[in-house]
Amino acid sequence: MQSLRFTLVPAITSAITSAALLAGCAVPAADRSDVAPAQPDQREGPCWLSCADGFTARSLFEDDCGVWTVGAFDLLTNYPGLEIVALDDKGRATILIQYSGKTAPFTAVSDGTWLGGLAHGDADPRVDGKELYVGAERGHVYQLVAHAEYGFDSVLIATFPGEEVHSLAVVPLFDADRPLLLVGLGDGRLMALEAPAGVARRFVARELHREPGRIRQFVELPPASGGGTPRLA
Predict the structure, then answer these.
(1) How far apart are CA 113 and CA 76, in angstroms?
(2) Positive or negative CA dihedral for 18, 24, 29, 35?
(3) Which of 32, 89, 128, 185 could bridge across to 66 with cysteines, CB 3.0–4.6 Å?
């Protein structure tokens, strides 16, 4: 089974997957006789892992396939801390909700092909607050909106037939007050999805740029000297 691990270091919190990293910590492991063995069900409490002195690590979630992408966002305002989002090979977006020292997994999307693109931001002015976006191997892009109490609405907002969605970003590329949802496709196209006023949960796509190969990842850069909107690499 593939394990999603949550590693806590001084002043730094990060999430990793054993599909990419087999070690539980960023430094060579040491013998930790004071660390209890992992429990079989993370929903019953923390599953502590062995790691080097000065670090603590615990397993939050056991998946039955590889995990492509992990992110941590404030999705549920009624719950303390951040929710962790795991996108896997079977097309599931699993949101890990932590409460009272326990972790509850919530499957918000089941696409059937791997999910890779992940972004969080306010790209839809018709929805209060920020939205979560995920992209799939078969060209689907989903918008997820959290309920105030618990749970998420999932809506398919765009399709790019035959193209893999590797990367997503919410960036105020042209207008500081109007962030765009950017989509990087397998054929090298950079697309912008915009929410037209008055048409609920529908988006319009336009091409911004084209690369000779797939767009695998976005990196947001600070504005150039003199201010302005952010840049994207």
Answers:
(1) 26
(2) negative
(3) 89
- Say what the pTM is: 0.77
Take residue 143 and report the two structure tokens written for it.
């918008």
Both tokens of 197, joined, read 């006023």
* Per-residue pLDDT reduced to its tens digit, 171-197: 887 877 788 999 999 999 999 999 887
Residue 59 has, within 13 A of its CA and on its CB side, a CA count of 23
Here the contacts of 153-162 (C-beta below 8 Å, separation 24 or greater) are 154/93, 154/108, 154/109, 155/201, 157/193, 157/201, 157/202, 157/203, 158/183, 158/193, 158/203, 158/205, 160/185, 160/191, 160/205
The dihedrals phi and psi of 44, each to the nearest 5 degrees, come to -90, -5
| DSSP per position, 13-45 | EEEEETTT--SSSSS-----TTSPPPPS-GGGS
The structure tokens 């995990």 sit at 67
